[in-house]
Design goal:
48% of the residues lie in helices and 5% in strands. The chain is mostly helical. It has one domain (7-249): Rossmann fold. The strands form 2 sheets. Strands 1-2 form a two-stranded parallel sheet. A two-stranded parallel sheet has the order 3-4. The chain is globular and about 55 Å long.
Length: 282
Protein backbone atom coordinates (compact mmCIF):
# COMPACT_ATOMS: atom_id res chain seq x y z
CA UNK A 1 0.00 0.00 0.00
CA UNK A 2 2.89 2.35 0.68
CA UNK A 3 3.73 2.12 -3.04
CA UNK A 4 0.38 3.69 -3.92
CA UNK A 5 0.77 7.48 -4.32
CA UNK A 6 -2.69 7.86 -2.75
CA UNK A 7 -1.14 6.76 0.55
CA UNK A 8 1.88 7.71 2.62
CA UNK A 9 3.62 5.57 5.24
CA UNK A 10 6.36 6.46 7.74
CA UNK A 11 9.76 5.45 6.41
CA UNK A 12 12.97 4.25 8.01
CA UNK A 13 14.63 7.66 7.80
CA UNK A 14 11.54 9.47 9.13
CA UNK A 15 11.26 7.13 12.10
CA UNK A 16 15.02 7.13 12.67
CA UNK A 17 15.34 10.92 12.90
CA UNK A 18 11.77 12.08 13.60
CA UNK A 19 12.78 15.44 15.04
CA UNK A 20 14.48 16.77 11.90
CA UNK A 21 13.69 14.58 8.88
CA UNK A 22 11.72 17.42 7.28
CA UNK A 23 15.10 19.13 6.79
CA UNK A 24 17.46 16.15 6.52
CA UNK A 25 15.46 13.44 4.75
CA UNK A 26 16.64 14.21 1.22
CA UNK A 27 20.29 14.41 2.30
CA UNK A 28 20.02 11.05 4.08
CA UNK A 29 18.42 9.39 1.08
CA UNK A 30 21.04 10.75 -1.34
CA UNK A 31 24.23 10.52 0.74
CA UNK A 32 23.85 8.16 3.70
CA UNK A 33 22.30 5.02 2.25
CA UNK A 34 25.63 3.21 2.56
CA UNK A 35 25.24 3.26 6.35
CA UNK A 36 22.36 0.78 6.20
CA UNK A 37 22.80 -2.96 5.68
CA UNK A 38 21.49 -4.31 2.39
CA UNK A 39 19.14 -6.71 4.19
CA UNK A 40 17.24 -6.68 7.46
CA UNK A 41 18.99 -8.66 10.21
CA UNK A 42 16.03 -10.94 10.94
CA UNK A 43 15.14 -11.92 7.36
CA UNK A 44 16.08 -11.41 3.72
CA UNK A 45 13.98 -8.29 3.13
CA UNK A 46 15.66 -5.28 1.54
CA UNK A 47 16.63 -2.38 3.83
CA UNK A 48 16.43 1.24 2.78
CA UNK A 49 15.74 4.72 4.11
CA UNK A 50 12.59 4.88 1.99
CA UNK A 51 11.12 1.56 3.19
CA UNK A 52 8.03 1.57 5.46
CA UNK A 53 8.79 1.53 9.17
CA UNK A 54 6.81 1.25 12.41
CA UNK A 55 5.88 4.63 13.86
CA UNK A 56 6.58 3.24 17.35
CA UNK A 57 10.29 3.63 16.55
CA UNK A 58 9.75 7.33 15.92
CA UNK A 59 7.95 7.72 19.25
CA UNK A 60 10.87 6.04 21.03
CA UNK A 61 13.32 8.36 19.28
CA UNK A 62 11.18 11.32 20.34
CA UNK A 63 11.62 10.26 23.97
CA UNK A 64 8.23 8.72 24.73
CA UNK A 65 8.05 5.66 26.96
CA UNK A 66 7.26 2.48 25.04
CA UNK A 67 7.34 -1.29 25.52
CA UNK A 68 9.77 -1.22 22.59
CA UNK A 69 12.52 0.00 24.90
CA UNK A 70 13.03 -3.68 25.63
CA UNK A 71 15.08 -3.70 22.41
CA UNK A 72 17.77 -1.68 24.21
CA UNK A 73 17.52 -3.53 27.53
CA UNK A 74 16.47 -7.10 26.68
CA UNK A 75 17.38 -8.55 30.09
CA UNK A 76 15.33 -6.07 32.13
CA UNK A 77 11.62 -6.50 32.93
CA UNK A 78 9.41 -5.29 30.06
CA UNK A 79 9.28 -1.49 30.36
CA UNK A 80 6.29 0.82 30.33
CA UNK A 81 3.46 -1.74 30.11
CA UNK A 82 0.92 1.08 30.55
CA UNK A 83 1.93 2.34 27.11
CA UNK A 84 0.41 -0.70 25.42
CA UNK A 85 -3.19 0.47 25.68
CA UNK A 86 -2.45 3.96 27.13
CA UNK A 87 -5.73 3.72 29.04
CA UNK A 88 -4.24 3.70 32.54
CA UNK A 89 -2.05 6.73 31.91
CA UNK A 90 -2.83 10.05 33.53
CA UNK A 91 -4.69 12.47 31.26
CA UNK A 92 -1.52 14.56 31.03
CA UNK A 93 0.67 11.63 29.92
CA UNK A 94 -1.94 10.35 27.47
CA UNK A 95 -2.39 13.82 25.94
CA UNK A 96 1.39 14.16 25.67
CA UNK A 97 1.60 10.83 23.83
CA UNK A 98 -1.19 11.81 21.41
CA UNK A 99 0.32 15.25 20.77
CA UNK A 100 3.75 13.77 20.04
CA UNK A 101 2.26 11.11 17.77
CA UNK A 102 0.17 13.65 15.85
CA UNK A 103 3.13 15.99 15.54
CA UNK A 104 5.14 13.24 13.89
CA UNK A 105 2.31 12.28 11.54
CA UNK A 106 1.76 15.91 10.52
CA UNK A 107 5.46 16.25 9.75
CA UNK A 108 5.20 13.24 7.40
CA UNK A 109 2.33 14.87 5.55
CA UNK A 110 4.08 18.23 5.38
CA UNK A 111 5.74 17.18 2.11
CA UNK A 112 4.36 13.71 1.44
CA UNK A 113 0.65 14.07 0.78
CA UNK A 114 -1.70 11.12 0.93
CA UNK A 115 -3.72 9.11 3.39
CA UNK A 116 -1.59 7.73 6.21
CA UNK A 117 -0.85 4.02 6.40
CA UNK A 118 0.58 2.88 9.74
CA UNK A 119 1.98 -0.56 10.54
CA UNK A 120 2.63 -0.99 14.23
CA UNK A 121 1.87 -4.17 16.21
CA UNK A 122 1.36 -2.13 19.38
CA UNK A 123 -1.53 -0.27 17.76
CA UNK A 124 -3.42 -3.58 18.08
CA UNK A 125 -3.81 -2.63 21.74
CA UNK A 126 -4.88 0.93 20.94
CA UNK A 127 -7.97 0.59 18.75
CA UNK A 128 -10.24 2.73 21.02
CA UNK A 129 -7.67 5.51 21.28
CA UNK A 130 -6.96 5.51 17.54
CA UNK A 131 -10.67 5.64 16.74
CA UNK A 132 -11.03 8.54 19.14
CA UNK A 133 -8.29 10.49 17.38
CA UNK A 134 -9.18 9.33 13.84
CA UNK A 135 -12.91 8.45 13.75
CA UNK A 136 -12.72 7.56 10.05
CA UNK A 137 -9.71 5.26 10.39
CA UNK A 138 -9.83 1.90 8.61
CA UNK A 139 -8.22 -1.15 10.22
CA UNK A 140 -6.54 -4.09 8.50
CA UNK A 141 -5.62 -7.00 10.75
CA UNK A 142 -3.22 -9.58 9.32
CA UNK A 143 -3.36 -12.96 11.05
CA UNK A 144 -0.75 -15.70 10.76
CA UNK A 145 -0.68 -19.30 11.93
CA UNK A 146 0.83 -19.15 15.45
CA UNK A 147 2.81 -22.29 14.66
CA UNK A 148 4.78 -20.16 12.22
CA UNK A 149 4.37 -16.81 13.95
CA UNK A 150 5.85 -17.81 17.33
CA UNK A 151 9.17 -19.14 15.96
CA UNK A 152 9.34 -16.01 13.78
CA UNK A 153 8.74 -13.72 16.78
CA UNK A 154 11.39 -15.48 18.84
CA UNK A 155 13.88 -15.21 16.00
CA UNK A 156 13.03 -11.52 15.49
CA UNK A 157 13.56 -10.54 19.12
CA UNK A 158 16.81 -12.50 19.42
CA UNK A 159 18.31 -10.85 16.35
CA UNK A 160 17.11 -7.36 17.28
CA UNK A 161 18.57 -7.70 20.79
CA UNK A 162 21.88 -8.95 19.41
CA UNK A 163 22.16 -6.11 16.92
CA UNK A 164 20.71 -3.18 18.87
CA UNK A 165 20.67 -4.11 22.56
CA UNK A 166 22.81 -2.31 25.13
CA UNK A 167 23.11 -5.54 27.14
CA UNK A 168 24.45 -8.92 26.17
CA UNK A 169 21.08 -10.65 25.61
CA UNK A 170 20.48 -13.70 27.79
CA UNK A 171 16.99 -14.50 26.44
CA UNK A 172 16.22 -16.29 29.70
CA UNK A 173 12.51 -15.42 29.69
CA UNK A 174 12.08 -14.37 26.06
CA UNK A 175 9.69 -17.19 25.25
CA UNK A 176 7.48 -16.35 28.24
CA UNK A 177 7.40 -12.70 27.20
CA UNK A 178 6.43 -13.51 23.62
CA UNK A 179 3.60 -15.84 24.68
CA UNK A 180 2.30 -13.37 27.28
CA UNK A 181 2.33 -10.54 24.74
CA UNK A 182 0.47 -12.60 22.12
CA UNK A 183 -2.18 -13.63 24.65
CA UNK A 184 -2.70 -10.03 25.80
CA UNK A 185 -2.85 -8.76 22.24
CA UNK A 186 -5.37 -11.40 21.18
CA UNK A 187 -7.62 -10.74 24.17
CA UNK A 188 -7.46 -7.01 23.68
CA UNK A 189 -8.33 -7.22 19.99
CA UNK A 190 -11.15 -9.65 20.76
CA UNK A 191 -12.59 -7.00 23.11
CA UNK A 192 -12.25 -4.09 20.68
CA UNK A 193 -12.51 -5.47 17.12
CA UNK A 194 -16.30 -5.63 17.04
CA UNK A 195 -16.52 -1.99 18.16
CA UNK A 196 -15.19 -0.99 14.73
CA UNK A 197 -17.92 -0.67 12.07
CA UNK A 198 -17.72 -3.61 9.68
CA UNK A 199 -17.11 -1.35 6.71
CA UNK A 200 -14.01 0.00 8.46
CA UNK A 201 -12.30 -3.28 9.37
CA UNK A 202 -10.96 -6.26 7.51
CA UNK A 203 -9.00 -9.33 8.54
CA UNK A 204 -6.71 -11.07 6.06
CA UNK A 205 -4.48 -14.12 6.31
CA UNK A 206 -0.73 -13.79 5.97
CA UNK A 207 -0.64 -17.02 3.98
CA UNK A 208 -3.10 -15.61 1.43
CA UNK A 209 -1.12 -12.38 1.19
CA UNK A 210 2.09 -14.28 0.45
CA UNK A 211 0.39 -16.53 -2.12
CA UNK A 212 -1.36 -13.72 -4.02
CA UNK A 213 -0.25 -10.28 -2.80
CA UNK A 214 -1.83 -8.23 -5.57
CA UNK A 215 -5.08 -10.19 -5.44
CA UNK A 216 -5.34 -9.71 -1.67
CA UNK A 217 -4.56 -6.01 -1.99
CA UNK A 218 -7.31 -5.67 -4.57
CA UNK A 219 -9.69 -7.33 -2.12
CA UNK A 220 -8.70 -4.87 0.60
CA UNK A 221 -9.27 -1.92 -1.71
CA UNK A 222 -12.63 -3.31 -2.82
CA UNK A 223 -13.75 -3.81 0.78
CA UNK A 224 -12.99 -0.23 1.77
CA UNK A 225 -14.13 1.28 -1.52
CA UNK A 226 -10.72 2.64 -2.45
CA UNK A 227 -9.98 3.11 -6.16
CA UNK A 228 -7.07 1.10 -7.58
CA UNK A 229 -5.10 3.40 -9.85
CA UNK A 230 -3.00 1.99 -12.69
CA UNK A 231 0.11 3.58 -11.21
CA UNK A 232 -0.51 1.74 -7.93
CA UNK A 233 -0.76 -1.62 -9.69
CA UNK A 234 2.45 -1.02 -11.62
CA UNK A 235 4.28 -0.02 -8.43
CA UNK A 236 3.03 -3.09 -6.59
CA UNK A 237 4.37 -5.32 -9.34
CA UNK A 238 7.66 -3.42 -9.46
CA UNK A 239 8.13 -3.92 -5.71
CA UNK A 240 7.46 -7.64 -6.05
CA UNK A 241 9.93 -7.85 -8.93
CA UNK A 242 12.69 -6.39 -6.76
CA UNK A 243 13.07 -9.68 -4.87
CA UNK A 244 11.92 -12.47 -7.19
CA UNK A 245 13.95 -15.09 -5.31
CA UNK A 246 12.88 -14.04 -1.82
CA UNK A 247 12.24 -16.94 0.52
CA UNK A 248 10.80 -16.77 4.00
CA UNK A 249 12.84 -17.99 6.93
CA UNK A 250 12.40 -21.71 7.53
CA UNK A 251 12.37 -21.83 11.32
CA UNK A 252 12.03 -25.12 13.20
CA UNK A 253 9.14 -25.85 15.55
CA UNK A 254 10.21 -28.44 18.10
CA UNK A 255 7.73 -30.63 19.94
CA UNK A 256 7.95 -28.74 23.25
CA UNK A 257 7.26 -25.36 21.62
CA UNK A 258 4.48 -26.88 19.53
CA UNK A 259 2.82 -28.24 22.68
CA UNK A 260 2.97 -24.83 24.32
CA UNK A 261 1.38 -23.18 21.27
CA UNK A 262 -1.40 -25.80 21.28
CA UNK A 263 -2.14 -25.11 24.95
CA UNK A 264 -1.41 -21.42 25.55
CA UNK A 265 -2.61 -20.05 22.20
CA UNK A 266 -5.68 -22.20 21.59
CA UNK A 267 -7.97 -19.15 21.69
CA UNK A 268 -5.72 -17.24 19.30
CA UNK A 269 -5.69 -20.18 16.89
CA UNK A 270 -9.49 -20.37 16.93
CA UNK A 271 -10.16 -16.64 16.64
CA UNK A 272 -7.65 -16.33 13.81
CA UNK A 273 -9.37 -19.11 11.87
CA UNK A 274 -6.73 -21.82 12.21
CA UNK A 275 -7.16 -25.43 13.27
CA UNK A 276 -6.86 -25.48 17.06
CA UNK A 277 -6.73 -29.28 17.32
CA UNK A 278 -3.50 -30.19 19.16
CA UNK A 279 -0.77 -31.24 16.77
CA UNK A 280 1.70 -32.02 19.52
CA UNK A 281 -0.24 -33.95 22.20
CA UNK A 282 1.60 -34.66 25.40
Amino acid sequence: MACDPAFVAPTTVQCGVPSHFVLSEQFARERLGFLLPKRRPMDDMTMGFDRPQEDELALCNLGLPSPWWTVAFPNDPPPDPAYETLESLSPHDRDRWIATWLGFLRAIQFEHHGRLVLKNPLHTFRVPLIRGVFPKADFIHIVRDPREMVPSCLHFWRRIAEDHGLQRPLAADLEDRVFASLVRMDRRLHETWETIPERRRQRIRYEDLVADPIGVLRGVYDHFGWPVAEVAQSRWQARLNEQPEYRRNQLPLDERLGQRIDEDLADLLTRSGYDAAPRHPR
